[in-house]
Specification:
This protein is of the alpha/beta class and 275 residues long. The chain has 2 domains: 125 residues, Response regulator (Rossmann fold, 3-Layer(aba) Sandwich); 140 residues, Response regulator (Rossmann fold), CATH 3.40.50. It is 46% helix and 19% strand. It contains 11 helices and 10 strands. The chain has a 5-stranded parallel beta sheet with strand order 2-1-3-4-5, with helices on both faces. It is elongated. About 5% of the residues have low confidence.
């Protein structure tokens, strides 16, 4: 990703900090990681920088972990930053947590699950967070296909507008531009089989040629059927029309979400470079 995110690791153990730092950097090479051994260093860092995630142990040499988190929550920069407490006693904490504690701490992570599980958890969290404010224009006339796709989008908290034909989709994009002075949609998903006025290819070509939205301004994901045994995927038609990526039906949740996250990041990266 071209726009830097920051992650703060707080742990009194030199070996734990080193392992987490190396594994996170290997998994997330484009993220800035700051590692602190005590509360004083951590509070200095949180006063200076905004963080996407803060992970901390509770046994710190100069301050109780809960007290440090309370101090972080008093700061404007990281008042709402997700804080994950890494502890060997997560069950007790979850059962006995008071309301103030629950508000301050986003989640507890069981130290016994190991560093790789924590790295996976952080990576997945960052990927999902990047989609929370995404807007999707979804064009599909099939009630069955739309029911499956929208259920996945709903489950993963995407904001979307579902339209059944290409001409209405183009009008929606025009109105969006008139209202916002830009394309505020992050991704357009369109089915290939649109029978009214425009098919999927023609809709994509109109977006690229008529509206002048390029691959970065509005990434497009085309939904199509799996080719038969005696057929071949029409890569020339798919990408020649102006598609960023395509997905074949029947779609799976993991595949759709993974592709959407990639395309959303394409849009966000372009916005970061243009800012």
């Amino acid at each position: 990703m071209l726009f830097k995110k920051r992650l703060l690791i707080i742990d009194s153990s030199d070996s734990t900090r080193t392992i987490l730092f190396k594994e996170l950097l290997n998994r997330l090479p484009d993220i800035d990681i700051i590692a602190c051994s005590n509360a004083k260093e951590a509070l200095t860092a949180t006063k200076r920088f905004d963080f996407e995630i803060i992970t901390t142990g509770l046994a710190l040499p100069d301050m109780d972990g809960y007290e440090m988190i309370a101090e972080i929550r008093k700061q404007n920069k990281n008042r709402d930053t997700p804080v994950f407490v890494v502890s060997g006693d997560t069950h007790t904490h979850v059962v006995d947590a008071e309301q103030d504690d629950a508000n301050a701490i986003t989640a507890y992570f069981d130290k016994a699950e190991g560093h790789k599980s924590l790295v996976n958890f952080i990576s997945d969290f960052l990927a999902r967070e990047s989609t929370l404010n995404a807007r999707i224009l979804y064009v599909d006339q099939s009630a069955t296909s739309a029911a499956i796709t929208t259920s996945i989008l709903d489950k993963n908290n995407f904001s979307y507008t579902h339209i059944k034909d290409g001409e209405t989709a183009l009008n929606e994009l025009r109105m969006d531009y008139n209202q916002n002075g830009k394309c505020s949609y992050d991704v357009m998903i369109t089915d290939l089989t649109l029978t009214r006025h425009l098919n999927g290819f023609e809709l994509i070509q109109a977006v690229r040629n008529e509206l002048k939205y390029d691959y970065l301004t509005l990434p497009i994901l085309l939904m199509t059927v799996e080719p038969g045994d005696d057929e071949k995927t029409d890569f020339t038609g798919i990408f020649g029309a102006g598609t960023n990526d395509f997905i074949t039906k029947p779609i799976t949740e993991d595949n759709l979400i993974s592709r959407l996250i990639n395309l959303i990041n394409v849009k966000r990266q372009n916005e970061a470079l243009s800012a």
